[in-house]
Amino acid sequence: MPATRRQFLGLTAAAGLSLLTGCSGRGPSAAGPSTAGALRLTAAPMRVDLAGHAVPTWGYGTVPGPEIRLRAGETLRVQLANELPEDTTVHWHGLTPPNGMDGVPGITQDPVAPGEGFSYEFETPVAGSFMYHAHVGMQLDRGLYGPLVVEPRTEELAYDSEYTLMLDDWRDGLDDHAGHGAESSAGHGAEDRAGDDPDPVDAVSFGGRSYPLLLVNGRPPEDAPVLTARPGDRLRLRVMNIAADTGFRFAVAGHRLTVTHADGMPVEPVTVDALRLGMGERYDVLVDAAQPGGVWQVGVQPEGRGGWGRALLRYTGSEASTAPAVAERPAELDGRLVSYEQLVAREPLPLPAGAPDRSYDLTLSGTQIGGQSYPDADPLVVSDGDWVRFTMRNTSAKWHPMHLHGHHFQVLTASGRGPVKDTVTVPSRGGEVTFDFLATNPGRWLFHCHNHHHMEDGMLRLVEYE
Ligand code: C2O
Ligand code: CU
Prior knowledge:
The chain is mainly beta. It is about 5% helix and about 40% strand. InterPro entries: Cu-oxidase-like_N (IPR011707), Cu-oxidase_2nd (IPR001117), Cu-oxidase_C (IPR011706), Cu-oxidase_fam (IPR045087), Cu_oxidase_CS (IPR033138), Cu_oxidase_Cu_BS (IPR002355), Cupredoxin (IPR008972), CuRO_3_CopA (IPR034279). Keywords: Capsid protein, Cell cycle, Cell division, Copper, Metal-binding, Oxidoreductase, Virion.
């Protein structure tokens, strides 16, 4: 492994983010290893620096929260402290913990009241790029999220350095951000009801509410995070969409992306120009720094709405002053996009021969799944050991990224070895996606749209073991 690749740092706070925060004025992290060997995560009101404006919000000390890193087979130990004025929990997005550690209030645990805490502790056998976030109302939308990387016991990929990039939409720009959580969890009126129609027929739209700012690692385009590379370096990027209401396209000007993992799970490498990420989705890509130098736009384009997010790829020795303008759009954004159909799982699920034990056909319409809205919805019942198939057909005008807790599923593609994921985007107006999973993790699990407004409006079903 190349010498500059960061050594494994164990379960320490901010390990990965330190790569990016060297050039920011961010304050110290609220998290740090405690004497008991647990990481402490404190959810609290805070201010986030958005291009020189100190905006009040809620977070885990920084936005994103500290990157949690551990190695496959280790035990995640996180002590959550709630210093918010309302209940909270932490959900481990993409991990498959025992049900009681999944962080869903009222379903898998009691909500953690203000001033209280909760200890999360479970083994993480599977490597990958994951996220953690609050799972109460719209708390995630304020900044209560962070990256979680489980490194494999032996890394097969060779690369020189790696960066985690969390893409977010920020609702209220620079004014009065503190008010928005209350407003959005209290009920979303006209904008939501209208949310299902106004786009032209061909537009890709995941949401439609007003989110004037797009952030990469908590930073607006004027204060973009900088990835550095020497000519010839190979970078690994872990790109994660944690936005509440925005799907993104992602590309690096002058460079191509070799996709190696979808939602943290390995795929046969495929080289594309751009990624499309629904909310909750992640891709790991390798980028060869094959240009002689310069500063290149890492473009983050919201689907179906205006504005830009970005990072910068800067070759060592190149002047920061040659950075492209904020709105300079990488042509690669219009190139070949990653699709599930071209992805082939390197470690497919061990599905038996024959037919699934249970199949559910679930039409997505408005914010209903299979004609029902939570809480007035029947559980989707499975039995321990079942091979379960969900087929989703989206008749609405929005693209819906559907996320299953507690399990990985395999997307059904022509190859028969589609990518293993935990979140899958179903295109609007007749789009269809089918996935299979093995019911091997008993409990009550959420299956929901990762547009958090849709989820709050009831786009959620429980998967229950009988
Ligand atoms: Cu990332 Cu139930 O969510
Ligand atoms: Cu949705």
